[in-house]
Amino acid sequence: MSVATAQTTGVRRKGRLKQSAMPVNFAPGTSMEEMCRIASRLGCEGMDLIPPSDWPMLKKYGLIPTLCPRETMTIEDGILRKEIHGPLEASLHASIDKSAANGCPDIIIVGGQRRGLSYEEGADTCVAFLNRLKKHAEDKSVTLCLEVMNSKYENPELGRVDQVCDHVAWGIQVCKRLNSPRVKLLFDIYHAQIMDGNVCESIRENFPWIGHFHTGGVPGRHEIDDTQELNYRFVAKTIADLGFTGYVAHEFRPGPGRDPAQSLASALQIMDV
Predict the structure, then answer these.
(1) pLDDT tens, position by position, 192-236
(2) Rounded CA gap, 213 and 246, in Å?
(3) C-alpha angle 242/245/251, rounded to 5°?
(4) Cα 176–94–55 angle (5° rounding)?
(5) Residue range 66-124, pLDDT digits in tens
(6) Which of 109, 116, 157, 169 gets the most CB atoms within 10 Å of its CB?
(7) Cβ contact 80:126 at 8 Å
């Protein structure tokens, strides 16, 4: 299938929000090409967290890499861990260059586990580390997006235990201290709802410091339809009315017995405001 065919046969979205998919939206074992084919047909702009080796496949289907995956760092060992700062800094510099060269606007970064460190010490460490990267990100017009996560659930499918960036306010303060247009918060709506609630007011209050969004239903991290507690159409309208120009990526896992492609189509329609 040519890029032109992929672009012209898909659903045309209204465009107030640029939406993207993620591999977790699809059935296990779905090939990268099939994921791209479905995402393009349903009207996605791109896909999050796709390895750079697969970026040519995205391009084939008229999609872009909307969020570069983390390399070197893990959810447990993020930018908080001083012992990996050397290789991690080199890796992120390389990711900034790679992203800029391939039209990827954002790179995910994670704080990592505290392991006894205070939130204050964690913030100081993260700010010092990101100060070494922000100029390069600014020069290349690539945004480093620090993800907020929930530390409530021990199940790794649902939560991220002991994370330093487990509240929106903590992540926003780190971003404000760095004072860079290229270091912002990855506002994961699922995680933020679990830890802080008051999602739409939080988005309004912190909007200048938000660079990327992830979705997911509460409870269970499944579909964002009427099976869960958030009104995602209202959330989408809130984001769109603020003039958000970045990407909203779907990170829900299809529920048992649900058709993944239909669930993605429904999520895109809900957020198409």
Answers:
(1) 999 999 999 999 999 999 999 999 999 999 999 999 999 999 999
(2) 8
(3) 95
(4) 100
(5) 999 998 899 999 999 999 999 999 999 999 999 999 999 999 999 999 999 999 999 99
(6) 109
(7) yes
Site of tokens 């391939």: 102
Strands (E), the chain: 18-21, 46-48, 64-67, 106-109, 143-147, 183-188, 210-215, 247-250
What are 140's two structure tokens?
A: 């290349």
Whether cis (ω within 30° of 0) applies to the bond prior to 51 is no
Distance (Å, whole) CA 92 – CA 109: 9
Count how many residues are written for the chain. Answer: 273
Domain annotation for the chain: domains and CATH numbers: 39-252 (3.20.20.150)
